Amino acid sequence: MNFENNLLFAQTQDGADQLRHFRSQFLFPNHNGIDFIYLCGNSLGLQPKVASEVLKNQLNNWANYAVEGWFDGNEPWMFYHKALKKLMAPIVGALPSEVCPMNTLTVNLHLLMVSFYQPKGKRFKIIMEGGAFPSDQYAIESQVRFHGFDPKEAIIEVFPKEGEEILHTEDIIAKIKENTDEIALVLFSGINYYTGQWYDMETITKAGHEIGAIVGWDLAHAAGNVPVKLHDWDVDFACWCSYKYQNSGPGGISGIFVHEKHFNNTELNRFAGWWGYQESKRFKMEKGFIPEAGADGWQVSCTQVMPMALYHASLQIFEQAGFIEPLRNKSISLTAYLEFIINEVNIELGVEQYKIITPKVAKDRGAQLSIIAQRKGKQIFDGLMANHILGDWREPDVIRLSAIPLYNSFEDVYLAGQALLKVSKDVLL
């Protein structure tokens, strides 16, 4: 597509957008009567307008049924998670039996590593991307320490080449092969939180399996953003948060994936709880843990009804939109337009003030663009906020902007570019 840096072009694109009506289903932050242009869905998705209604319904169920709400009413809490499983599965390319909403992301990462990080002999190492989100780093460090290993010896980090910002798939594969006999677990982020790079999950998963390792993914920045096929790619396990691209609210419930090939593996360790016990016999209260079939058997604690209701509300919007593929098609165009607009700002300034470190090719990125501001980045970011453009800041010099296909428009992107140009001139010239 030949982009144009003008309002008419942006509005024409929006007029042809078959997903444009979904924007009206979300609430935008508003200060002093002015709506923000919200480009921060990579950090926290907007609130669906229906969120207050679904919470009110569950509060009414609590008020009217009290403890009987677990089995009575139109959405008995005991089985509520099953409605979500059917909607979660298409988001991550899984069977409904392979996914389950539960806990929060890092808790689930720990629970899954209990099962799938099984060091034996000299095969005790975990390979991950360098510069992963700190929570993943801390979780992995603590897991290897729990098993009695020194993180400096047990964790292999793969960093970009000197002078580069992103990882090359061939370098990841080479590092895996270099440590063929020592790697127990390959554990990467689907999309790197800082650079926005979408790793070649299928190829990396295959490479890990070829050397006999287990392969898992943290999909915090991928689930609901890009199409993944966890079942078809033969991924062993994955987990994600739902409050970024899936709009479930701050601290929203997490999701897990466990491939069905592991369902009958009795050698897997797991930290068990009553909620993961075989559903048909759960209330017999017997000793000896018998897991429920599928991913549900990894549950530990009671269903979190209110967070689950918020997630359910957003998942139903995804269902209305046709799940991931239509959203992805719009996202590719919207992100490309954002890239074009940023480059137009550089042209107008006469210098490359803004360097996009996110890969340029659509297959290697999602909705997020990470932009290095060469000079006075924080001052420019603050200026964008003052002009009602809300992205987010990552030290020391990166502005992250994400145009989300469910609720952002081409006009949003154009106007954000105009604001960036204005602020840049005010600050730099």
Q: Would you mind describing this structure in some detail?
A:
This protein is an alpha/beta fold and 429 residues long. It folds into 2 domains: 7-35 and 323-428, Alpha-Beta Complex (Aspartate Aminotransferase, domain 1); 53-321, Aspartate Aminotransferase, domain 2 (3-Layer(aba) Sandwich), CATH 3.40.640.10. 37% of the residues lie in helices and 14% in strands. Helix 4 (105-116) runs parallel beside helix 5 (134-146), helix 7 packs parallel to helix 8 and helix 10 runs parallel beside helix 12.
Provide keyphrases for this structure.
single chain; 429 residues; alpha/beta; Aspartate Aminotransferase, domain 1; Aspartate Aminotransferase, domain 2; seven-stranded mixed sheet; four-stranded antiparallel sheet; globular; pyridoxal phosphate
Q: Would you spell out the secondary-structure blueprint of this structure?
A:
Elements lengths: L6 H9 L10 E2 L2 E2 L2 E2 L1 E2 L8 E2 L2 H15 L14 H13 L6 E3 L3 H12 L8 E5 L4 H13 L4 H4 E4 L10 H10 L4 E7 L11 H10 L3 E5 L18 E4 L14 E4 L46 H17 L2 H26 L4 E3 L11 E6 L3 H10 L2 E2 L1 E3 L3 E5 L7 H19 L1
Parallel strand pairs: 4-15, 7-8, 7-9, 9-10, 10-11
Antiparallel strand pairs: 1-5, 2-3, 6-12, 11-12, 13-14, 14-17, 16-17
Helix pairs in contact: 1-12, 2-9, 3-9, 4-5, 7-8, 10-12, 11-12
